[in-house]
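Researcher: Structure prediction, please.
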Amino acid sequence: MNNARLILGVVFVFLWSCEPKEDIIPEPQSAAVRDAILASMEEWYFWNEELPAPVNTADYASNEALLDAIIYKPLDRFSYLTTQEAFNNAFVGRNAGHGFGFAFDATERLYLTFVYDESPAGLDGWQRGWEITGINGKNLSEYKNSAGGYDFQLGPADPGISNTFTFKLPDGTTTTRTNVKAEYQSNSVLHQEIIELNGKKVGYWVYQSFKATAGQSPTKSLEVDESIKFFETAGIDELIIDLRYNGGGSVAVAEQINNYLIPSTHTNKLMYVNKLNSLKSDLQKSVDFKKLGNLNLNKVVFITSRGSASASELVINSLMPYLEIVLVGDNTFGKPVGSFPLSAYNRTLRDNNVELVPITFATANAEGKADFFDGFPADFAVGDSPQFNWGDPNDLRLAAALMSIENGSVGGRLLNSFYRPKWEMIDQFKGLQQEFPAY
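Model: Predicted structure follows.
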């Protein structure tokens, strides 16, 4: 995508230097925009040869209806439309909402799974492990739908919207909190610590979404730099990376993390190859590892779930040819393809503040592994235990990750804990929000 970024910059310079500036009233839902969506898909869509033909854009009442009608449904669960501001803000962690996630345990009790530090929920002191027993005065069962899933009706992410939650805390007490949605800066690093294990120093890193730091050129995350420095200073022997709720994000930040994790003996070797459609084959590229820092790892243990997607899977897949990779938890989501926004290449989309983000490329690692639409299978399937806070030794998946480091295997008690929830938070979201899922 470096080539794509380069071309993007050239396009901007050309358009703004050669076309007069006009006062344009955006019409995001218009015939012209739908024509631009179709033209952009025909040019850039990875599965452009699978687009239906002919397509009459006048047959569709909205941009969303058009896109849904033309995507390649056998494999495409991912293409979406948004606004340019929403897209740009999400990839640098500018959010709006309460700022938390939640999940069910094996007995279908609902718990907070993560809380962003500077979000309204974080500023109110909410913690992973708090059990949610009621929302807006209703029992949770009242939000269950006929399909067995849940719609908690928390409303859009707009600032000013409030919801009331009743919690049972780990000490057995209860509290009811009304929380008002607001804009906030989300953090990617939810937890980091050093765990002593039979004379070894094990780094434990909970990483939630690949978000860049605004204003950094080249694109990177300062949070990642700081975390890796923490582990380097401690002199860790092993590393556990917890991606269980990580829906993806920036490819550039995924590359940054890979360059820290790769042993120096593999620098300049192939990280991944991306493939575009036949019209854009000149933009295809290979990305090589460029070692950063001084971590020297032979193995990385990842804690994963069906909520581990996109850039999370790119990191895992890219490292597989060079390191021993162990997956603990559940199978990953299954997204071996990626996107970049297309408004930069179409003035109609740009002037009407429509961001089209379809699948534009697929990735393969150095061994050619590219087809994992069913996700990566867990080496040790272990149930989630959201009732325990980060780093708690009672957390089943953390305990299993540590056991795999200590013994090379995981005991039956932990393996017998496995369950696959009927509903997961990633099911609640589509498009941009599915990549950065939070309420």
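Model: Residues 189-336+372-435 form a domain with the 2-enoyl-CoA Hydratase; Chain A, domain 1 fold (CATH 3.90.226.10).
Researcher: Thanks, that helps.
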